[in-house]
Predict the 3D structure of the following.
Amino acid sequence: MIFQITWFILWGVLWAVYFMLDGFDFGVSILQPFIAKNDAERRLVLNSIGPVWDGNEVWLITAGGATFAAFPTTYAVMFSALYTPLFIILCAIIVRGVSIEFRGKSENPLYRRAWDWAFVVGSFVPALLFGVAFGNIFQGLPMDASGYHGTLFTLLNPYGILTGALFVLLFAVHGALWLSVRTEGEILERARGMAKTLWPVLTVVAVAFLVATAFATRLYDNYLSMPFLAPLPVLAVLALLAAGYFIFKGKSAHAFVSSCVTILMVTFTGVAGLYPNLIPSSIDTKYSLTIFNSSSSQYTLTIMTVVALLFVPIVILYQAWTYKVFSDRISVEGIARDEDAY
Amino acid sequence: MDVLSLSRLQFAVTAMFHFIFVPLTLGLSWLVAYMEWRYVKTGDVQYLRMTKFWGKLFLINFALGVVTGISMEFQFGMNWAEYSKYVGDIFGAPLAIEATLAFFLESTFIGVWIFGWNRISKKLHAVSITIVAFATNLSALWILFANGWQQHPVGYVLNNGRAEMVDFMALLTNANGVSKFFHTTISGYVIAAFFVMGISAYHLRKKQETFIFKKSFHYAAVFGLVASLLIGFTGDHEGVIVARTQPSKFAAMELQWETVKAAPMTLVAFPDSENERNVVEGLKIPNMLSLMAYHDPNAEVKGLKEFSREDRPPVLPVFLSFRTMVFLGMLFILVSATAVFLSRKETLESSPRFLGIMMLMIPLPYIAAQLGWIVAEMGRQPWIVYGLLRTSQGVSTGIDVAQVVGSLAGFTLLYGGLAAVDAYLLFKFARKGPDKGVDEIVNMKRA
């Protein structure tokens, strides 16, 4: 039982870190059309995430792999039930990945604009659909003994869409703050302005989400029966407020850190609310997939735990090192001189 | 078509497309790393230009390898949910470990390598690409542990209606996985070697940047010769293991219908699966097949008739793929030996015909690698886990034809488009040659 709980926590951590890291990549590209006015500025926006986006994306692959290894039944049901949205997410992520690498490989303006849009759409779509998918998981999927009963449109219910909007806004603010700590000049000013505009909108949607969650899901039940979990949602709210405070104070770095904490805590809040379910059934709780009825054997979980405890800290160390190497601010002029930039 | 056939087709399309890009990066990463270490050692800017030129071609492929890999991972859950439930206890672990150990390393350090030219020391920069090369190969190791288990399940018990792992070491020492790792990664080295030789040949024919391309050609020729020889050895070893662990695949590869002792090798043959015999059969080498399969000239080789019809793989495509692959493998040894000989004698530029041949050779190792996967995966049929679970039992039950038609069409269109852009970019940058400006930039930075 201890291993299942360990892997449940690790499962939550992998998704939370993924959203925290790739979240600003998504946000930066969602904002690109609003923040960058010409080719040089679009190039700058792209290069702000250039050195790190690929490493960030691997957290998704690890989250997927960990689901497969630790909770294979959940992996199987989750991805076959969410077949079409997952297919769309995959296409979008493929398109985004190549757009970053391919965009700068030709001077042709038409070619560049095409990849610019691939970059924007390829980031917006997964940001939204991850939210929709998690919103639906929080609510529970229509599953019984014979499997999943629903279509793509079942997923596009009001609560799912609200969660999608919450994700998009969280990432957009996060991306604006990333640009505020990574860039110089006009882009920096526009990014700060964007954070000021979007943060109030995000706050309104977050409040709506907190209220809707009480009606649409059973996430709060766990917080009533296990009050020691209460710091998670409390910290999520405090971090969001802190982000706003620092945004309006003009302290971008503080605001970005607060935004990181917000995304981590929002994800933990959702995941802890699910416990012991991974995917609740909205038809009858006896069909829910829990960490106990869908997990791997204790032997496999032990091996996986050893691997994770040994290597995830190392991953965090070298990824942190790369953030340090690429911590300086970049500018349109600097990028123009740098032949290795995208 | 039904969900099963469509899902199989989709897996084949996406896996084969993924394996256009991955094998090149397995080998090219080592070559680029070697070039950069030459630069670190000599300080000669020509080596830096060489590194950047091949590095650019490497990156175009690398990006596509990464993004197409993501869709592979998730398809197990999407299309093969029953399989995932059945084997997840074992199969999921190497995939998760691959991501944790290898994929993080390569994806993080590729960013350092692309953007780190002026931020970290020369040595640390060369270390970055070396880490990328190591991690790319390490990633192949874990994937092939997973695939090796599918080919030859070991270290498990059947429990709760699924296979559960009881011996992790058995998975890591599974002869099928280990041998497949060497055979597959080294096939990537052959692909990279012929890729570099072919493009170098193009520039040498035009007599441009001869310093860079003579060196590149020479490195690749030596790398290619060693790899081609090793691919022969590892291929032979694969055969031995397949004969032992997957006798129906082996029989299909060799068109062996009857179970016989002291089996001869038939050089010319063509099957008639309907009547369970070969319509053409000639040029037999006595005892050769037994010798190759079991390293014993009198050993018994199992024939296809040993297996009921529904347990046999599709004979013709497996056989043809296998024969063509072996033929190509021998050709690679011959051609790369010639390449080493000519590049050592410094007579490359005066052999335009040979250089022309080298350009035409580029696609052949790619074809050989694809054929190898057809032998491995089609030869495993009708099993998704050999002898344990049928492919038809592994497919998702909760998805419908329309969904898979949609995703199959979507993947095919998307991948087709990406392949076109990739080919365009590779041609463009391969023809353009190394960037001119590096000397000036290096001088500017020193000043």
Observations:
- The CA atoms of residues 131 and 164 of chain A lie 4 Å apart.
- The first helix of chain A runs from residue 2 to 35.
- The longest strand of chain A covers residues 277-279.
- DSSP finds 14 helices and four strands in chain A.
